[in-house]
Specification:
53% helix; 3 domains; four-stranded antiparallel sheet; Butyryl-Coa Dehydrogenase, subunit A, domain 1; Butyryl-CoA Dehydrogenase, subunit A, domain 2; single chain; globular; 393 residues; binds flavin-adenine dinucleotide; Butyryl-CoA Dehydrogenase, subunit A, domain 3; alpha+beta
Length: 393
């Protein structure tokens, strides 16, 4: 494994770090307090102008062709600056555009990727439903074949990141399977659905605990007609397998989300522990404070290492890349939740007050343990993959 960066990559990292620090971070507090669709769209536009939204997508379709190791290194700056903006960019690039880049037909890539890569269209992935998230195989949204090579989609999707601002949705729906012995995820198919489709509507943004600036909503499909050519990859029934592979890379993105938050906590705590005095000394003089800060540093170092290795495995196309992605997401998210709680503790009463940065980070961080498969589901995924590796499945 070689994580040395080219001069060009180094220069992109430093420009991107500056952009996140100067233009995204100063808006993070406002986005959290008064979530605004205009503001998050503007942030995404800033990232698009820089080339970040399309950075890992193939150059042939307007992307930057960046390797995953470099892309996730950049992403940490964004997650550190504003977790909400990072989450919306992740859903756009990794869950929607990359879905099409990985599995779309040549025509779908040519039609949709250039706009997604340049941020002219915003994307979302609609997998979860009100009655199922972890158990995606139980999804109820229906896709019925009708005449003229079309399908009619009906159902409700829940927790759609970017729902209120997206132009393009990848919707997982169930096409009836003519086989009574079929497994429950057979028939699940991914459709590309455009926002202006008749019968499609989007709910109001949820009022959330954290990542409040990243708009999340329901998506309602009431007899939405979609052409067969909008099935991702063109084959009915491939949706479940496809989305699991998409999550393999998306989970690295969510590990970076948690990492960036810890990195921000660390910086805040180092500063505050030198400024705040108790019993005649800065609180940095007390071991109980120091050890919490050290634990944050360990998460940052170990998290970065596991994320880079996992990204490198994706770059190399190695089979176990997904297994390490689950490990990375689980490991960093669990530690990050504890680290953010410690950060709030270091700030004492001030940490409990709105407007203190660690208070926001403490709320934002929890999503890392829920999105793209909860901690419990990650452990199941890891165990299943291990059993497979050892030849028991
Ligand atoms: C802010 C936010 C953004 C999101 N963005 C998106 C998005 O863009 N697209 C999308 O499709 N979804 C999105 N989600 C949904 C997210 O992926 C789901 O919430 C998550 O997968 C968990 O599903 P659930 O909420 O239905 O929980 P459930 O599946 O109902 O789980 C409830 C609890 O039971 C546990 N549990 C369930 N099954 C098992 C089991 N077999 N063994 C042990 N424990 C189990 C879970 O770990 C959890 O603790 C988002 C969620 C949030 C909060």
């Amino acid at each position: 494994m070689d994580f040395t960066w080219s001069e060009e990559e180094k220069s992109v990292f430093s420009e991107f770090e500056k952009l996140c620090r100067e233009r995204i971070e100063p808006r993070a507090e406002q986005l959290d307090r008064n979530p605004s669709l205009e503001l998050i769209k503007d942030n995404l536009n800033i990232l698009a102008q820089f080339g970040y939204l399309g950075a890992p997508l193939p150059e042939k379709y307007g992307g930057g062709g960046m390797r995953w190791t470099a892309y996730f290194t950049m992403s940490e700056y964004l997650a550190k600056a504003c977790a909400s903006t990072h989450l919306s960019a992740l859903a756009h690039t990794l869950l929607c555009a990359n879905f099409i880049a990985m599995f779309g037909t040549e025509e779908q890539k040519r039609k949709y990727l250039p706009d997604l890569a340049k941020g002219r269209k915003i994307g979302a992935l609609c997998a979860t439903e009100p009655s199922c998230g972890s158990d995606l195989g139980a999804l109820k949204t229906k896709a019925e074949r009708i005449k003229g090579g079309k399908y009619v989609l009906s159902g409700t999707k829940a927790y759609v990141t970017n729902g209120p601002i997206a132009d393009l949705f990848i919707v997982l729906a169930r096409v009836p399977v003519d086989n009574s012995n079929s497994k429950k995820h057979e028939g699940i198919t991914a459709f590309i659905v455009e926002r202006d489709s008749r019968g499609l509507s989007v709910g109001n943004p949820y009022d959330k605990l954290g990542v409040r600036g990243s708009p999340t909503s329901d998506l309602y499909l009431d007899g939405v007609e979609v052409l067969a050519e909008n099935i991702v990859g063109g084959v009915e029934g491939d949706g479940f397998k496809q989305v699991m592979r998409v999550f393999d890379i998306g989970r690295v993105g969510l590990a970076v989300f948690s990492l960036g938050i810890v990195s921000a906590c660390l910086e805040e705590c180092i500063r505050y522990s030198k400024e705040r005095y108790a019993f005649g000394k800065p609180i940095a003089a007390y071991e109980e404070v120091n050890f919490k800060i050290v634990d944050m540093q360990i998460t940052v170092d170990m998290g970065r290492s596991i994320i880079l290795k996992s990204a490198w495995m994706h770059d190399m196309g190695l089979e176990d890349a997904g297994l390490l992605a689950s490990c990375a997401k689980l490991f960093v998210a669990e530690r990050a939740t504890k680290n953010a709680s410690d950060a709030l503790q270091i700030f004492g009463g001030l940490g409990y007050i709105k407007g203190t940065k660690v208070e926001r980070l403490y709320r934002d961080v929890k999503l890392g343990e829920i999105g793209e498969g909860t901690n419990e589901i990650q452990r199941r995924v890891i165990f299943k993959r291990l059993m497979k590796q050892y030849g028991y499945l």
